[in-house]
From TrEMBL:
GO terms for molecular function: oxidoreductase activity, acting on the CH-OH group of donors, NAD or NADP as acceptor. This is Aldo/keto reductase. Substrate binds at H110. Gene3D superfamilies: NADP-dependent oxidoreductase domain. The lineage of its organism: Bacteria, Bacillati, Bacillota, Clostridia, Lachnospirales. Keywords: NADP, Oxidoreductase. The keyword Signal does not apply. SUPFAM superfamilies: NAD(P)-linked oxidoreductase. The active site is at Y52.
Length: 277
């Protein structure tokens, strides 16, 4: 396994196990520089979203990197206020324009909303028209997936959710595996809280790897795609240096015991049921 290793989605498209996240990187120069650095290090999977407000900078970095567009797996997401059939199609075109590309590798529904089914119909249309190579969802719990799958023609290929040692979502992981939906982790470092967990410190010393590297390697060994973010060149490189070691079965079980259900982000039910965003 190396930085170019990929999982194969249920439609045959290859998605790199390691990606570069851009959430909360909004300063124009900072976005461009960090994406350029990630591509230079060897990342070939870049994750953004309309609501991040950085698609133009991501697109510019990709153009200036010298890396061929077809070598990059590019993800974006439709925001909640754009959900619905026609509005999703418009939002997709706007994202393409900002990213300065003519297709996406993966397009996701950003949060579960009552309009999911209409939005999904739009994603299916884009997929059939080959405007996007894969379609999926983000922040969906099992019951959101079940509701969507009652009427969908195409089963989602990916579900991107908050996932880390404190929030392992084992029922969701099993459901996704059963239906060939690839789980993808956002917030794999718990927005910094991972560094306070004693076991992670202990394993860092044992494997002579940083806490970040232990957490990201754990994602891969649980069969979950991971997209850490950083604006620091050293960290961007460090987060990619996770392919030369393996966490033992015993230590994987010890990490599994850290699962408390603690979220660092929003509970999807707050969005779906209480219209938080």
């Amino acid at each position: 396994m190396n930085i170019n290793s990929a999982t194969t989605l249920h439609n045959g498209v290859k998605m790199p196990w390691l990606g570069f996240g851009t959430f909360k990187i909004t300063e124009e120069g900072q976005v461009e520089n960090s994406v350029l650095e990630a591509l230079k290090v060897g990342y070939r999977h870049i994750d953004t979203a309309a609501v991040y407000g950085n698609e133009e900078s991501v697109g510019r970095a990709m153009k200036n990197s010298g890396v061929k567009r077809e070598e990059i797996f590019l993800t974006s997401k439709v925001w909640n206020s754009d959900q619905g059939y026609d509005s999703t199609l418009r939002a997709f075109e706007a994202s393409l324009k900002r990213l300065d590309t003519d297709y996406l590798d993966l397009y996701l529904i950003h949060w579960p909303k009552p309009l999911n089914k209409e939005t999904w119909r739009a994603l299916e249309k884009l997929y059939k028209e080959k405007r996007v190579r894969a379609i999926g969802v983000s922040n969906f719990k099992v019951y959101h997936l079940e509701e969507l799958m009652e009427s969908c023609e195409i089963v989602p290929m990916v579900n991107q959710v908050e996932y880390h040692p404190r929030l392992q979502q084992t029922d969701l992981l099993e459901f996704c595996k059963k239906h060939n939906i690839q789980l993808e982790a956002w917030g794999p470092l718990m927005q910094g809280k991972i560094f306070d967990i004693p076991l992670m410190k202990e394993l860092s010393e044992k494997y002579n790897k940083t806490i970040s590297q232990i957490a990201l390697r754990w994602d891969l060994q649980t069969g979950v795609v991971t997209i850490p973010k950083s604006v620091t060149p050293e960290r961007i490189k460090e987060n990619a240096d996770i392919f030369d070691f393996e966490i033992s079965k015993e230590d994987m079980e010890r990490i599994a015991e850290l699962n408390t259900g603690e979220r660092v982000g929003t509970d999807p039910d707050d969005v779906y049921l209480h219209n938080k965003f």
